[in-house]
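Page 42, continued from yesterday. The earlier attempt failed because a stray header line got pasted into the input along with the sequence. Redoing it now with the clean sequence only.
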Amino acid sequence: MIRMANIKSKAMEDIRDVHDLTFYKFAIESLPVAVMTVDPELRITGFNSSAEEVTGFSKEETIGQHCGKILNGELCSINCPLRTVLNHRESVVRTESTICNKFGEIIPIRQHAAGLLDEDGKLIGGLEAFVDISHSKLLEREKANLISMFAHDMKSPLISIQGFILRLLQNADEIDEEKRKKYLKIVKLEASKLESLIDGFLEYSHLQTGRLNFNFTATSLDKELIEIYETYQNKGSQKGIQFELRNMETLPIIEADSKYLQRVFSNLLDNALKHSREKGLITITTQHTDQYIMVKIKDRGTGIDSKDLPYIFDPFYQGYGEKRGKGYGLGLAVVKAIIDGHGGKVFVESELGKGSVFTVALPKRRKPEE
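This time it went through. Structure tokens are written below.
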């Protein structure tokens, strides 16, 4: 009887252990936070759905891989938080850092690392929980850029307008008609700059807040790209720059807003044209995978400094290439807002002095909620 009681007790403990394990797996999988577990050699043993969403890697792709190979984080080779807890230097590490996702995008994260202990207190691995803080970082940069913009870009034309109006008021009798017209033209030009700045900001604001409704219809990217290619061939010839459309196969019809896709490709080609050298070449290349249609726009221009790459899609950011543009840094921000609205992605590869490649990935099938 005692033996039977021990067997029953052991069976009940096993059931409770399985139940507890199932519960913990369910809880971790349901968390709105990316969670990754590793063994003592930093090989990944667990990867929840939120981690898949942040990194772009599936669980199957990560299990058994070294965590540094998957996250490719800023701290992985310098001061790895998981290595810190596994070496018992600290029980928990909290920090902000960056990782590089499957698509090559730099993602700022807030991360917490802790050791995993068994019932006897023995260290059997580590756990890292991380959250994508791109949005909050973007808001911080937008705030800083907005303050800088309003302090400089808006103040400069206002000072100019005030100065010329003051001259007209104080010296009305001494200023001849020709000079008066010249002053008024300058005032009008400066006022137009202010209007352009405000219009650009409002357009971006509408896109960001979803107040601009997209009209999704069956769209042929082949048709859209051919039309815009023909337009930019003429523009390029005026600057001695050649355009090439390398579209080897017919692209499938997708649901999109053709008007706003034209805006996307116009902004990207304007950028490529602006930063290309004389007698340069700009190519538009297409390809498609099971899920996406990819449109690549490549130039051989001034390129983008690696320090600027994480921020070039931010509004009002003007660190692009060797020379600042005359605009207000809204073109690429508008591109990203439109592509996000289509459920797609846009990213860039560049090397300073050698040119850039902007890639637009549009989904073949739009999700209903989008």
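Notes: The chain has eleven helices and twelve strands.
Reminder to self: strip header lines before submitting.
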